Each structure stands twice: as structure tokens, then as C-alpha cells.
Amino acid sequence: MGQLAPVVVRHADSFHGLRWTPPGAAAFALTVGLGKDGDLAYALALTTLCAYTLPLVLGTYWIAQRSVLGKGEGKNRTRKNEQKKQMTVSPVYTGWNIPFMPGDSLGADEKELHYALRNAQLRMMALCR
What we know:
mainly alpha
């Protein structure tokens, strides 16, 4: 921080324009706006923040609405939905089948064994014993 202070002091005039950015406006509101006779500065900083917030919120809402309603991709989206409807998936389970064990626990045990076999640390511990 000590090496940065001389650079900041030397270029302090160029940082004046940063108060029109959202972080700069928030810092300006907290430092100058909350001081004595800082009502105008606080209102100016708040107006700056609102000027950034309103179009960004409206733009985000517009993008989300187009995405949800499917207006952004045109005919490609309907083709994809039709293809998904035409595909049928057969529910064939190809995992373990051990008698007298429930399928849910078999799936979890199979998954844990596969993870354990891929874990290099566990494999080394098994080899060292």
C-alpha cells in the first residue's frame, strides 16, 4: 500500500471522473454526502446510481422474458422441442443387480466404488498395504 499511495496522490485529479461510476457514486455518497451540508452531493450520487440501475434492470428483465417465452431463437427452438418430443428413452437399467439389496442403495454403492477406483490416493493406500 505504501508504494501505491504516491501514485494515487500524483494522479488524484484523474480520479475525479470516477465518481460517475456506480462504485464511485456510492463512495461519494458515503464520504461527502453523509457529511455536514452534503444533501446535494448525496442526492446527486443517488441519482447517478438510479441512472445506472434502471436501464440495467429493464434490460435484464427484457432478456429474461425473451428467453422464457422463446422469442430469441425463432424457428430453431420449435424444431428442438419437436425433436425432444419424438425421442423416446427406454428405462433400461444396466447397473448391478444383487439379490436382496434395494436398487437405490445398489446405485449409490456402485457410484461410490467407481469414484473410489478413480481416486489416486485411495489406490495408492490399497497398494501400500
